[in-house]
Amino acid sequence: MRAVTISGPGPSGKLSVSSLNPPIAGQRDVVITVAAAGVNRADLLQRAGYYPPPAGAPDWPGLEISGTVRRVGPGVSRWRAGDRVTALLEGGGYAEEVVVRESQVLPVPDGVDLVDAAALPEAACTVWNNVVDVGRLQPGEWVLVHGGSGGIGTIAIQIARALGAHVATTAGGPERTARCAALGADLVIDHREQDFVDEVRRATDGRGADVVLDLLGGGALGDNVRALARGGRLVVIGMQQGRRGELDLSDLLARRGTVTGTLLRSRPADEKARIVADTEQHVWPLVADGRVRPVVHARIPFAEAQSAHELLESGEAFGKVLLVP
Ligand SMILES: NC(=O)c1ccc[n+]([C@@H]2O[C@H](COP(=O)([O-])OP(=O)(O)OC[C@H]3O[C@@H](n4cnc5c(N)ncnc54)[C@H](OP(=O)(O)O)[C@@H]3O)[C@@H](O)[C@H]2O)c1
Question: Could you tell me which residue ranges the Enoyl reductase (ER) domain spans (predicted)?
Answer without folding.
Answer: 10-323
